Amino acid sequence: MFEIKLKKRLSGTGGDFDLNLNLSIVEDDFISLFGPSGSGKTTVLRCIAGLTDPDEGFIKFGNKVWFDSVKKINLTPQERNVGLVFQEYALFPHFTVRENLEYALDKGQDRKIIDELLYISDLKELSDSKPQRLSGGQKQRLALARAFVRKPSILLLDEPMCALDRSTRRKIQIEILKLYKRYNIPIIIVSHDMTDVFKLAQKTVMLENGKIMNSGTFSEMFNKESDRKSEFVGEIISVQKNNGIYIFTILVNENLIKLSVSDNEIENINTSQKS
Fold it and tell me: How many folded domains does the chain comprise?
């Protein structure tokens, strides 16, 4: 289990504020940090990774202390075994796909994981290609695969899909879930896209001005029953059928709305709405 309790003074567009976080993460948690820009989400990831020092607090993984301001413990990023994926791919341009993965191997580590990750990430046919020949989605799949090479204690994703189009984003969401289910590594994702939160995370933590304002499952935090008489334009995220009633989950601006539609009513929905 991860135990994270930290404080740090930050500067935002509205002035200075205190990041104050108290969070526990079990072994197979998939958590999203959600909230407005400048609320401290990326700083949380950087503190966990050892790239930014909290002003006070502690970070523990099991019985191992990564950071403790009182005991003056502060492990280096290399000592923490954290996987990091940012929106920038940070690939080695002169290495092939395979070589980018091999570079992440620990000394003496079994190399079988390279072939396994190439297969899971659908990069096997591109293993001898260099990054400049890859699409944006392929580059991000490679960056994700590389983060899993050392089987990190935790994987931190900082808006890894923000530069991708909607179709590619959906494919990367699937890749992330495949890797997550295969290796059972706890993941924290920072994203401003509601579909990332809906499709990936088991639990969402809402940060605002450095403080946890709310936390829970997606349904507990975001689902809203729609007024049947209201009109809106949105993207259908999922459709479920239960006892003759279709439940549409629709992304409208930054909100997900639940819409119940009967068998008779669904015939009145035009083709573009059903897509």
Answer: 2
CB-CB contact of 97 with 86 (8 Å): no
**pLDDT tens track for 224-249:** 544 444 455 567 777 888 777 888 77
Report strand pairing: 255-262 vs 245-252: antiparallel
Residue that wins the pLDDT comparison between 41 and 240? 41
Q: What are the pLDDT digits (tens) for 81-108?
A: 999 998 787 899 999 999 999 999 998 8
For residue 229, is it within any domain? no
Q: What residue numbers bound the domain in which 178 lies?
A: 2-224
Residues 130 and 73 in one domain: yes
